[in-house]
Design goal:
Helix content: under 10%
Number of strands: 41
Domain Glycosyl hydrolase family 32 N-terminal: 100-422
CATH topology of the largest domain: Tachylectin-2, Chain A
Keywords: Glycoprotein, Glycosidase, Hydrolase
Shape: globular
CATH class of the largest domain: Mainly Beta
Strand content: 35-45%
Largest sheet: 8 strands, mixed
Pfam family, one: Glyco_hydro_32C
GO molecular function, one term: hydrolase activity, hydrolyzing O-glycosyl compounds
Family: Belongs to the glycosyl hydrolase 32 family.
């Protein structure tokens, strides 16, 4: 059965590849600083000769940005911002997302499930839409879609966090009590970082409204051989049944900042922590922020695994994932490997994994965090997307940042990479579908999908090609460089088989449009064509120097490839956003079925 690429904007692009699709490892998606692109999404893949059936499900919406692990402090706030020059379209309230997590305003780390409620703690600036005055805001949900804002959970109140409460994680103790471990800044200027702990004041309160900090904070202080300004983001802790010790990781850098490091700390009582002699893992990547370390089933099961419930005899059926956020490159990457608890070492299965950089997402996605959801026995991934316009724009809007929609994550049957898919709860927001079926798009033509009256939509589409004879030859110099290939062969460059796909967030006259498209190439000496998937946002906005707050999340090849993109339309907003199917290739393309749903607006923190 053919798979489907889906694209969502306030949701996600998703496109599991068809059964005859054979994808090359790994996909390449890059940001092009030299040209006005959003987060140009490129993928080179292979497909058997013959009829090509590509299911591509797509959705888009208007997004914001989440506060992340980038600790840039701005002291001159709104009163000093020159907001009068901000274009009206930038501050249009319709550019706020509909169903991505966001606070009512301003700048927006540890998700968890407790007593029937999902809890999301996030870094938030209550005083403005820029990075500073960071506290841990708190929202709760029954379904990860509808959110209710509660009181601030953690804010600076002790010497160990007087100058900031930064990222951290939640851990559930054996008796079910949740604990938060977080980074505190205990000195001004140099941002000296230590790790602190907080407990719920009343564990019988399922909302966990109040948190207290014990007197023995900080519980982890950097040793003299660690750069105290690069020592943050403790992970969820795990309890090893073999020796009764808790373990957690703290992200850092070594060798003058050139190596990323995940230090292991152990404790018997969750109060006194000691560093293990060697790091769990390190690599020449620069500083590691927001590390995440968790088990996954190696037999292709989609169910998640609780970090604390991996029995000794079960470890042969388990792999581990180590994810790090690269402070220099501003994206998340991960490796899949083996964890030796006795030696406290993690070894990637791919010896070059720290060079190849498998990514959760090949777009705008950073500082991610997973948690185990016992209610549905799944592992859920959260990540945030930052703004790509200016700080003055953020101030004028009064908000900055979004969370990507939660994704279920599990290990592919091959054991080589992760699969991701939007959580099933998102589909409950679909309503008022419109369809386009059995429609042939001839060379150089396009067709509008009518009936949608919103920019917040979820779209699934199946394309069919009867022949690949017109496929262009693939330039060997570009065969392993999807970035350059997408740049050279954009959506408006006519070809043989393709480019064909969707124009999303398009204005009525298509003056603004963002293309998500495919192009097929022949490979010399092979009967397997190469299929390139790209997004081209070079015409996404008439605003000068704007090419990335609308967001589109794309999920392809059954979840192997994900892209969070964003554009800043000035015309294609809300009911003025149009959807088209286009074909700029010589070969006719058939739309077997396209279904587009409008997406209902959930409860979102009172916004």
């Amino acid at each position: 059965m053919p798979s489907r690429p889906d694209v969502r904007a306030d949701a996600a692009l998703r496109w599991p590849a068809p059964a005859q699709y054979k994808m090359t490892p790994p996909p390449l998606f890059f940001h092009h600083p030299s040209r006005p692109v959003l987060a140009t999404s490129e993928r080179v893949s292979e497909v058997k000769m013959g009829a090509l059936v590509v299911r591509f499900a797509w959705a888009w919406l208007l997004l914001l940005q989440l506060a992340g692990a980038s600790h840039v402090v701005y002291r001159d706030f709104e009163t000093e911002a020159a907001t009068e020059k901000v274009p009206p379209s930038i501050v249009d309230p319709l550019l706020r997302t509909g169903y991505h997590f966001q606070p009512p305003k301003n700048w927006i780390n540890a998700p968890m499930y407790y007593e029937g409620w999902y809890h999301f703690f996030y870094q938030y600036n209550p005083e403005g839409a820029v990075w500073d005055n960071i506290v841990w805001a708190h929202s709760v949900s029954r379904d990860l879609i509808n959110w209710h804002a509660l009181e601030t959970a953690i804010e600076p109140s002790i010497p160990a966090d007087k100058y900031g409460c930064w990222s951290g994680s939640a851990t559930t103790m054996p008796d079910g009590t949740p604990v938060i471990m977080y980074t505190g800044v205990n000195s001004p200027g140099v941002k000296h970082q230590v790790q602190n702990i907080a407990y719920p004041k009343n564990a019988s309160d399922p909302m966990l409204r109040e948190w207290v900090k014990p007197d023995h904070n900080p519980v982890i202080v950097p040793e003299t051989d660690i750069n105290a300004t690069e020592f943050r983001d403790p992970t969820t802790a795990w309890l090893a049944g073999d020796d009764g010790h808790w373990r957690l990781l703290v992200g850092s850098a070594a060798e003058g900042g050139s190596r990323g490091v995940a230090y292991v700390y152990r404790s018997r009582d969750f109060k006194e922590w000691r560093r293990v002699k060697r790091p769990l893992h390190s690599a020449a990547t620069g500083m590691w922020e927001c590390p995440d370390f968790y088990p996954v089933s190696r037999d292709g099961h989609t169910m998640g695994l609780d970090t604390n419930r991996v029995c000794g005899q079960c470890r042969t059926k388990v792999k581990y994932v180590l994810k790090n956020s690269l402070d220099v490159r501003r994206y998340d990457y991960y490796t899949v490997g083996t964890y030796d608890q006795k030696d406290e070492r993690y070894v990637p299965d791919d010896p070059a994994g720290d060079e190849h950089h498998l990514r959760y997402d090949y777009g705008n996605f950073y500082a991610s965090k997973t948690f185990y959801d016992p209610a549905k026995q799944r592992r859920v991934l959260w990540g945030w997307a930052n703004e790509s316009d200016t700080r003055d724009h953020d101030v004028a809007k009064g908000w900055a940042g979004i969370q990507a929609i939660p994704r279920k994550v599990w290990l592919d049957f091959s054991g080589k990479q992760l699969l991701q898919w939007p959580i099933e709860e998102v589909e409950a927001l679909r309503h008022q579908p419109v369809t386009l079926k059995d429609t042939v798009i001839k060379a150089g033509e396009h067709a509008e999908v009518t009936g949608l009256e919103t920019a917040q939509a979820d779209v699934e589409v199946t394309f069919e090609l009867s022949s690949l004879d017109c496929a262009e030859p693939l330039d060997p110099a570009l065969a392993h460089d999807a970035e350059r290939l997408c740049g050279a062969k954009g959506a408006d460059v006519e070809g043989g088989v393709g480019p064909f796909g969707l124009w999303v967030l398009a204005s009525a006259n298509r003056e603004e449009r963002t293309a998500v498209f495919f192009r097929v190439f022949k490979v010399a000496g092979s009967d397997k064509p190469v299929v390139l998937m790209c997004t081209d946002p070079t015409k996404s906005s008439l605003n000068p120097d704007m090419y990335r707050p609308t967001f589109a999340e794309s999920f392809g090849d059954g979840g192997k490839t994900c892209i969070l993109s964003r554009v800043y339309p000035s015309l294609a907003i809300d009911k003025n956003a149009h959807l088209y199917v286009f074909n700029n290739g010589e070969e006719d393309v058939k739309v077997s079925l396209l279904t587009a749903w409008q997406m209902k607006k959930p409860l979102m923190n009172g916004a």
